[in-house]
Design a protein that fits this description.
CATH class: Alpha Beta
Structural class: alpha+beta
Order of helices and strands: HEEEEEHHEHHEEEEEE
Helix content: 10-25%
Strand order of the largest sheet: 1-2-5-12-6
Oligomer: single chain
Strand content: 15-25%
Number of domains: 1
Length: 293
């Protein structure tokens, strides 16, 4: 069972410190030398191994997902090794995807980390040990941008392909596990079956082969891709379809399912999609970072 790296007592102290701060005097900007050019911030890639990062006094862990080739999606065609009787048309056809290595956070972004980076907490159930939720795609992007500037590393949201590959174990486990780490949802996921209608602290159930917790269930997770139909052609590091020209179709991919949903939505291949402004008590995210080659 995973332990959070900083205790709630420390979190409470942090919040009290913020509350105790009185109004500050408005800072006076130093004179600008017009001959000086603004220094460009060059964000770094991460080392290619499990790595601890720190932001605003909060430590968080990123797990290496080795590069490799896998089959993305599922099919209702009998006899296929990727057969799933529950596969939706959105999950078809299965197709070959090759990905470079990357790091992925072992847990969904916590309220503690979100507050440390953004100075606010949008969650409907406020508890720093819980995953941050009620976060739109737009605000998730603002978070990764702020986290990148704060740490000097180029954080981002995962692509759909990266998310599914990691959920399936990133080459370290059989692709055909129904959920992330098991064929039994209750072992690895908080869902409608066992969550009692509540979001839970990350890391209380079993991880998958990569050491990633709650890839299935707890809160749904934003991906960077615009939603679109799959192609049957092999792909390398796919970024998803181009932005749809029709505003009514401009929705972002969401993966993993949530504590409010049936296990059907928690399957590794299951896809959902929402407008980027969507906020919900069961919608959060986790971060990834590309690694040095």
């Amino acid at each position: 069972m995973k332990r959070i790296l900083l205790t709630l007592s420390i979190a409470a102290a942090v919040l009290l410190a913020f509350a105790a701060c009185g109004p500050e005097e408005e800072p006076v900007d130093p004179p600008v030398d017009p001959t000086e050019e603004e220094e460009e911030i060059v964000l770094r890639l991460a080392p290619a191994h499990d790595t601890m990062f720190e932001a605003g006094g909060v430590m968080f862990e990123m797990k290496l997902v080795p590069g490799g080739t896998f089959t993305m999606g599922a099919t209702t065609a009998n006899g296929s090794p990727y057969y799933d009787p529950d596969a939706d048309i959105m999950e078809q056809p299965p197709h070959t995807v090759t990905l470079d290595a990357f790091l992925m956070a072992d847990i969904e972004v916590s309220q503690f980390l979100y507050f440390a980076v953004m100075g606010s907490n949008p969650s409907m159930v406020s508890d720093l040990a819980l995953p941050v939720h009620n976060v739109s795609f737009t605000n998730a992007q603002r978070f990764v941008d702020s986290l990148s500037r704060l740490t000097g590393f180029r954080f981002r949201l995962p692509t759909e392909a990266e998310w599914e590959y990691a959920a399936k174990g990133g080459g370290l486990a059989a692709e055909r596990t129904l959920f992330a780490g098991s064929d039994t949802s209750e072992l690895v996921a908080w869902s409608q079956k066992n969550a009692d209608g509540q979001v839970h602290q990350s890391g209380l159930l079993q991880p998958n082969a990569l050491g990633l917790y709650d890839m299935s269930g707890n809160v749904m997770e934003w991906c960077t891709d615009w939603y679109g139909e799959y192609s049957s052609s092999p792909q390398t590091n796919p970024q998803g379809p181009a932005q749809p020209s029709n505003a009514n179709l401009q929705k972002r991919a969401v993966r993993g399912g949530s504590f409010l949903q049936a296990p059907y939505y928690l399957r590794n291949t299951a896809r959902q999609f929402f407008f980027g402004s969507k906020e919900s008590q069961d919608l959060g995210f986790r971060v990834v970072i590309s690694v040095e080659k």
